[in-house]
């Protein structure tokens, strides 16, 4: 039998009573250190609690998994991991492999770092959109930027986990939150969707669960002077805030600035389009009316075209207010097409009025 | 001082060693029962572990909070809650109020029900979009449906928590997963975005952390015969699946059908529009060409309009492939406007060709 045992986020003292019972009766206890924030004290504490020497193992050992599965065929084996045991996909994979090999498994859940961060920063968990991880590799910032954009449009907060790795020999590598934010500001310069600026209000959560855990909130421009120290860090970009969230941010974090709504600056591409094109279309409509009024002959069909264009511009603006974004853009394009057809026929270049 | 102590999801045995230390030294231990799945055995276990009688309190008592805050001014007070203590917004609010009243607080995180469900169903946590709660009240289903749609478009899984409440007198009320799914199928009949059908592959997680916890996966049509029993239940609608997720679903859940990708059936509204309107516009273009060819007089301007319409239809289809959804719709609308302007002038009703 293979037990997946989480330590939670408070070192070995994060182990649950149920987990301790399991560890005591296990024949072998592996402790997985690659995602690990478990220090020497915690390893010694784990040994004491389990009543046996836990075997520290590396990432490759868990990924390979054969020795663990072999042992679990005839013995009670525990794999102890930091946080909740099923958050890392490696553990979920190992569990599926065990099940396929008819090895019974059971999971002792524990505090997950991700859920704890969401709670500690005072934001409502159900308002978080997709969580992303930001690596130091520059291209990583683009998908993080897009996720923040999508989440803000949906009225959601974004938790950005930043790169963190721990190597037995080289020690810890972590991406500094200021460096992460700077990478996002660089993407903004290209994309210009007003997703992030020096005014953006963010929360930086560092070393969650450790004695020196810190949660700092403020505008990006205020973060420059803050030393965030060792990782792991995460950066939260909140969306619209409930007043209880504002209260919690001010009361429970090291608050450098009053909380503010980051979603106010952003606009859907559809809104940007209709708001930019509707006034231009109205001007062109007026121009065509003036031209047609001075002309001779049967202009009934052409006036009908202009009347329709006017209705469709109004439709576009109404659909936007109703949240029917695609219909708004379709109507806007249609109105422009109607007007420009006449402009082509009159020999006016629609794109150079 | 006020301690927020989570029990995790395994009854009182989900308490961490750190939590037990805190409970032992506290003067007063309140145990909050409104979100609670803590039975009599757990309450007795909690008393034994804490070395004192814990005081069960109702929802209103925690929401009101004054007695708790008053006690915490001079004493060591713990508020014990099911799951992770900061997931419920009530607790986060109480913590902010304590901080504003200069009462020191500390949180002992524990396994959260939400994170545990995500892990237990074998899906990758970072692929979950926004989590939603479905109430038995019929209008609730519409926003749940929209969230699933948005999440599927973004390639994300959706965790739908279903209504669950526990009343000292009336016992537990819960929404049955089959009833929840039926409500979503009804919304589909109105909205028709192919978000959900009898073929949709879902996961139903029930009573997470309890002895009789169950995780069932399969197509909606296969769920009808399954008795899911008492709540709380949640329904997961997965998006695109990684092969390790497929493996985990098959190996670790009670698998009624092979996993399948629910995002294949859905299309963005922009894609639906362009795919529906482009062929019609091409037909109308051909019709206008035929009419103009038979006519006398200077038709240069009109042919120029048709040439432009043709280019814009091609643009719309290309933008769609490039993921530029708004530009695709705008171009489609523009092409239709160009063509219809000529149809108006020729006395052809564009909407009755």
How would you portray this structure in words?
Chain A has 353 residues and is an alpha/beta fold. The first copy, chain A, has three domains: 2-111, Cobalt-precorrin-4 Transmethylase, domain 1; 115-255, Tetrapyrrole methylase, C-terminal domain (Methyltransferase, Cobalt-precorrin-4 Transmethylase, Domain 2), CATH 3.30.950.10; 269-346, Substrate Binding Domain Of Dnak, Chain:A, Domain 2 (Up-down Bundle), CATH 1.20.1270. The first copy, chain A, is 47% helix and 16% strand. Chain A contains 13 helices and 13 strands. In chain A, helix 11 packs antiparallel against helix 12 (300-321), helix 11 (269-293) runs parallel beside helix 13 (325-345) and helix 12 packs antiparallel against helix 13. At the A-B interface, helix 1, helix 5, strand 5, helix 6 and helix 10 of A face helix 1, helix 5, strand 5, helix 6 and helix 10 of B.
């Amino acid at each position: 039998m293979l037990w997946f045992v989480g330590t939670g986020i408070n070192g070995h003292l994060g182990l649950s009573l149920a987990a301790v019972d399991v560890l005591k009766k296990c024949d072998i206890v592996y402790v997985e250190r690659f995602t690990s924030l478990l220090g020497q004290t915690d390893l010694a504490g784990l040994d004491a609690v389990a009543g046996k020497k836990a075997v520290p193992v590396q990432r490759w050992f868990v990924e390979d998994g054969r020795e663990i599965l072999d042992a679990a065929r005839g013995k009670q084996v525990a794999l102890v991991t930091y946080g909740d045991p099923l958050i890392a996909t490696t553990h979920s994979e190992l569990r599926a492999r065990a099940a396929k090999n008819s090895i019974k498994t059971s999971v002792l859940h524990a505090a997950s770092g991700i859920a704890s961060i969401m709670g500690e920063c005072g934001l409502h968990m159900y308002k978080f959109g997709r969580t992303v991880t930001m690596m130091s590799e520059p291209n990583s910032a683009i998908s993080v930027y897009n996720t923040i954009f999508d989440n803000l449009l949906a009225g959601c907060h974004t938790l950005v986990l930043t790169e963190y790795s721990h190597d037995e020999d080289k020690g810890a590598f972590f991406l500094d939150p200021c460096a992460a934010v700077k990478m996002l500001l660089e993407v903004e310069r290209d994309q210009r969707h007003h997703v992030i600026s020096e005014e953006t209000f963010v929360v930086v959560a560092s070393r969650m669960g450790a004695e020196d855990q810190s949660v700092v909130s403020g505008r990006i421009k205020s973060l420059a002077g803050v030393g965030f120290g060792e990782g792991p860090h995460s950066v939260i970009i909140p969306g619209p805030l409930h007043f209880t969230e504002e209260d919690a941010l001010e009361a429970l974090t090291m608050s450098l600035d009053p909380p503010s709504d980051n979603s106010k600056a952003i606009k859907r591409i559809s809104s940007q389009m209709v708001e930019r094109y509707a006034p231009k279309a109205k001007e062109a409509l007026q121009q065509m009316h003036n031209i047609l009024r001075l002309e001779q002959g049967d202009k009934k069909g052409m006036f009908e075209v202009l009347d329709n264009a006017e209705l469709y511009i109004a439709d576009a603006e109404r659909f936007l207010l109703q949240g029917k974004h695609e219909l708004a853009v379709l109507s806007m394009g249609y109105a422009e097409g109607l007007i420009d057809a006449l402009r082509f026929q009159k020999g006016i270049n629609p794109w150079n009025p």
